[in-house]
Each structure stands twice: as structure tokens, then as C-alpha cells.
Amino acid sequence: MAFSSSITTIPQTLNFTSSNKLSLSSSTTSFHLSFPSFQSNSFKTITTTSPHITRAHAPPSPVTTTAASSFHGLCYVVGDNIDTDQIIPAEHLTLVPSNPDEYQKLGSFALIGLPDSYSVRFVESGETKTKYSIIIGGANFGCGSSREHAPVALGASGAAAVVAESYARIFFRNSVATGEVYPLESETRLCEECRTGDVVTVELEENRLINHTTGKEYQLKPIGDAGPVIEAGGIFAYARKTGMIPTR
Amino acid sequence: MASSLVPSTSFFHTKKDLSLSAFSSPSSQRCHKHASKRITCSVAAPQQTQRQPSSTGSVKTAMTMTEKIMAKASEKGHVTPGDNIWVDVDVLMTHDVCGPGSIGIFKKEFGQDAKVWDREKVVIIPDHYIFTSDERANRNVDILRDFCHEQDIKYFYDIKDLSNFKVNPDYKGVCHIALAQEGHCRPGEVLLGTDSHTCTAGAFGQFATGIGNTDAGFVLGAGKLLLKVPPTLRFVMDGEMPNYLLAKDLILQIIGEISVAGATYKSMEFVGSTVESLNMEERMTLCNMVVEAGGKNGVIPPDSITYKYLEGKTSVPYEPVYSDQQARFLSEYRFDVSKLEPLVAKPHSPDNRALARECKDVKINRVYIGSCTGGKTEDFMAAAKVFLASGKKVKVPTFLVPATQKVWMDVYSLPVPGSGGKTCSQIFEEAGCDTPASPSCGACLGGPKDTYARMNEPQVCVSTTNRNFPGRMGHREGEIYLASPYTAAASALTGYVTDPREFLQ
Ligand code: SF4
């Protein structure tokens, strides 16, 4: 992970849009994150299905109506050390993400490896998309293998961001490189503060997570080193911008 | 995390490098937090953000091994942990699971007609899902083959006839072992692979780490990658290794001590008289599992044992490097190996450490010996040694999956010391084990439903592999005890998790 030593906070102009993500049927692993400046409508549109989410779009807190980039929707809460086998079990790794159908399928299997103690499934059987747009995890999220299928499956399922206490290195790196999910770190153990189904908003500029169900707010860590690369639009765009590889 | 599980940790202590105390902390997440906090702090104190650390004091040039390799590969005189540098890649490895995706990204980004940056530096090894009728799995190997032909890739270890691996002379098996056996692991070089256990090659004093498909797609075209220089944790292991311990016990000890996130973003360097006494395969076991502690890479200083192993395997000149005396380590851990006991990692985490003897009442259903961690020639030799010493038969199904074709041949041809000339395969047969299977990743990561030895039932398995997260070997409710080949063989003989001293002393 981590690409620049000049870590300050997120550039103020950094807005997360997901236009390419949601039209993903045509695209591959979509590392073309676009981060246009000062775009006002930069919600990750979680308008996919559920009525909950529609409701959640009119949240109590006024901050979500600012121009800041934010993600908003229901959260799905997991514990520590959620490894890549739980995110996408190895039997599904034959799916190649650059193939649109297989990308869809990967999304439908997201987090299917969680043990039965998780009584609520992340993606309900028969569905291809999740109704949870934000995953909240504990420490060391995404540990295990280097499979890029892990962030891709989460992104393909329709999740916008993971907010975890910490990440395994390769998962973080893959999330940034592919732009599939936004890997954010929390200051506190949010997995003990939030419950699956809570309505939450993540505000990138403010580094803040608001749980509308409980009415509490939490501080997130700045995205830091990954900023310049994400801002450029992933590793390829970054390399082109800096003259490392020729522009096409 | 798991450290409370082991009663005696008196042989273990941490020496903190005071000059780096801002970074030193018992938990890696904490370390990481500190690292980022340091910078975040500078946001709070803007007057300091512009100042380079080196301008505040004397310039340090001492570097760790990992720093030196990365400095060399980026043509810099000096690098410091935290630097983001473009590193020239000496070898890029990919396999059937991540290769097709990486190739897709390479073509999309560099163009359909693009050529890889160096046809001799790309190594492609089908190994994960080979002996299966799963169509997509088979198709993925076809994608690799087409790409290798199109690009004239020099090192492609193909398999065409799945019915009998032996008629595929090019086919090797598990990538990390094949890389070593085919001479692609060389001291001082940079090896990137689309597999988290690429760190195995650190045993050769190489910087080796796992990357994702997008990064690999980039490397295929550009031959370089932006990497962050990790700080190094040093593990000093001294003392004579008791005859009932293997490198697997050492790394389970370390992971249990520092936790599955204890080395996140960091390099782990293994030194000391015990490490010097280990053969290459045992050193590979040590480095193989650094990723289970979250590590970016592991390294062992190359020595005569390394050079001997490399003899005849590579004609590429290489330049070993070593940590400077004054090099700065984030922290240093010391172990007296002679006091360690055989260990296991209980379900469902590699840091859930316990003494094997503490688990003697855990009834098991099966034993699995295989993978890049525990499926090498020395691993089968070790298991055979236990079976030979006991003279008994196994009480549970015991599955043997040699990592590579070369290991398979060794199992069938090398005499086991003290056996009067018997091979491992003969000893396994006498002990009632399953016949050694075709070399591949096998059930180490579950795989398609028809994978040999996959856990399709919620059973309890003692395994020489590296991960025991839920579902890793197939069934989500399966329980995996990670152990050394000695402990695995001893457990097979009793049907319970068993300390190998019951048979070896
Ligand atoms: S043997 Fe297991 S850990 Fe090793 S490369 Fe294969 S799947 Fe990965």
C-alpha cells in the first residue's frame, strides 16, 4: 500500500464517485476511479434495491447534504481477522473479474465464507447485490491471500467502502489499485459500536462516520499515503501522470 | 492476542531499539498507527511538514537487507522505511488463479498487441486448480498457455494431460517451491508474485512479496512497481534445534507471539545460529509464513548453504547483500530455540498458538501433509521419520500431496536415513497412508469440490499447511490445526493432536 511520503490529509478536492462502478457490466476490475473535484452529487449511489436505503437517503444529519464526498447506507458488521477465504472462498477463484458475467457472480459470493454464526448474510441467496453499502470490520481486515478477487467481490456486490480498525497490507493495496472499495481505517473499534443494519454515513473529507441509528459519530483516519494514487485514478493513471508509462 | 495461550514465554523477550521508540510497540497495528500518526501529527503542526528527517541530524547510511535490496533495485544510494520508490523487478511470477486476471489488465492497459517488458523475467506456473474437471479452472490454464505462446514466455511450466502429471515434463507444481527448484530465487534480487506466499523466496536473501492482479498487470508491461520500503523486525534465533522441532514450530512460535497482524507492512529478518543451521527448505518454511503475521516480506542472510542449493540451478549472476551492523530495526526479538516445544495453531487463526501436548485430547478425523509450507521433500522425510520410529499404522486418513513433481520423485526415490534404504513412499504405504497424490496446491486452499483431500465435511484436520481460517480447506465449519510434519505424522498415528516426542524419543 501506501504510495507517497507526503501524507497529509485527503486532498480537499477528493470526491469519490462511483459512476464506473455501477455501470460495471461493461468494465473490468475498474481501477479507473474517478475523482472529479468539487462534484456535488458524489454519493455512492446505493439506490440499488432496498427500501431501507431509500429511506436512508434522507438521513437526520444535515452534514450529509453538503458537497462532501460520502457514502451512505446500511452497514454490515464483521469482526477481527476477516480473511480473504471468508470474503471470497477459494472455490470461486476461477471466476475472472475482467469478464462481466463472472464479475457479477463474484459479487454474489461476497463474504459467503463467513461462518454460520453470521445469521444475516451479506448477499442474500438468489441475489447478486448486497443491500449493505458499508462494511464495518475489526482489526486486520482482508488478511490471508493476495487474491484481488477479495476487494473485487466486495465492490461487485455493490459495497462502497470498508471501515476497519486495520487492514492486511495486500488487501489494502489491492483495494487502492483496483478502486473497488474504499479502505478506510477507524480510530476506534467500530465493529463493537455498530450493528448490522444500522444506517451510517461516511464522510471522506471530514474523516467521519455517523451512525444515524445510534446517533453517534466517530473519527476515521485520513486515507494518507494512498491519496495521490487514488486521486490520480489508480496505479496506471498515476504512472501515466508521472510519465512512468506512456499515455495512451 | 494468542500470547496468553502459551504458558511459558520466558525464553522470549523483546529488545526495543530506543532510537526508534516512537515506532516500537507491542502490536503492529499500533506500530502502523504510530507510523501514520507521526505524519498525521505533522499535519497538526504544519511548520514541520516540509522538513526532511535527514536534515535534522547526521545522515545515516546503514541499511537492513531489505532496504539494501530495494535501494539497489531503485538505483538509489540509500532508502529509509516509509520511502515510496519505483523498484525494478527481477522476476514476476503468476499462476492459474491470478494470471488470467493480470493478463486481462495488462492487455487492457497496455494494448492488445503489447509485449511484456522481458520475456525471460516472467515466470508462469499453473499450480492451484489443476487436477479438477472444473471447466473454468481448466480454461484458466488455457489462457495462460495462449499468453505464454503469444509472448514467447521463457519459463512456463505447462500441464496439458491432466490424467497423468508424469507425462508433462514441464509441469512443476506449487509455484513457490517450483521457483526455488528451478533457480528463480536468487540473493539480492526482487521477486514479485500474484500470491501472498511469494515471501517464501526470502529464504534466499531476496526481496519477495505478494501483489494483486492490477499491480501484476502493471509490472507485466512496465517491469517496475511503486513499493513502500518497510521497516524491519529482526528475529534472532539461537540454540541447538531439538530433534523434535522443525522450522514450522519456530514460525508458529513467532506468529503466536506477535499475532497475525504483528508484522503488517513490515519486513521480518531471521538470523542467529539456529537459522544458520537450517537447510534451504526449512528456511523456506520460515519465510513462507511471514505473511501469516501480516509481513510484507521475510529475509534470511544468504550463506554457503544458499550458494550450495543454487549450484547448477541458475546461471544468472547474483549479488547477495546483508544488513549493516548499524542498521536500524524496528524491534528485535530473541529466542532460545533449545527451550521450545512442538506447537500447533488451533482453529481458526495461525496465531492461535498452543503446545501440541496441550491439545492431546483433541480428536481428529484426518491429516494433510502438503502445500508450499509443508509439502517439500524435507517435510515428507520428517513425516516418514516419525512413521518409521513408531512402526505403527495411522489411525485416520492421511493425505500426502507433494508440492512439486521433483518432490514427488524424491518421495518415491530418496532413501530415508536409518530405514535400511526404504523410500518415503514405502514407509507411507506401510503406515497405511493414502498414496501420494499428484503435485499441486491440492486441498491447501480448498478449491473446486472435486479437489483431492478437500474437506467436504465439517471435520477436524491436522495439516502442515499455513492457514486455518474458516473454510480454508473446504468446509466452512471444518477445524484445522496447523502443525509441523512431525506433529502431523504423530497425530495421524494416534488419531489425536499429538506431540511428536511420543514417537521420536
Ligand atoms: S500450497 Fe497453499 S498456500 Fe501455497 S501457494 Fe498453493 S494454495 Fe497457496
Describe this structure as you would to a colleague.
The complex is a heterodimer of chains A (248) and B (505). With 248 residues, chain A is α/β, with parallel strands linked by helices. In chain A, 22% of the residues lie in helices and 14% in strands. Chain A has a single domain (41-222), classed as Aconitase, domain 4, CATH 3.20.19. Chain A has helices at 19-22, 51-56, 84-87, 100-108, 149-156, 169-178, 227-232, 235-241; strands at residues 70-77, 132-136, 161-164, 182-185, 199-203, 208-211, 216-219. Chain B contains 16 helices and 18 strands. In chain B, the strands form four sheets. Chain B has a six-stranded mixed β-sheet with strand order 14-13-18-17-15-16, with helices on both faces. In chain B, helix 3 (99-110) crosses helix 6 (213-222), helix 7 (247-258) runs parallel beside helix 9 (280-288) and helix 12 packs across helix 14. Chain B is globular and about 60 Å long. Chains A and B meet through helix 6 and helix 8 of A and helix 1, helix 3, helix 4, helix 6 and strand 8 of B. Iron/sulfur cluster (SF4) binds at residues 128, 174-176, 195, 197, 371-372, 441, 444-445, 465-466 of chain B.
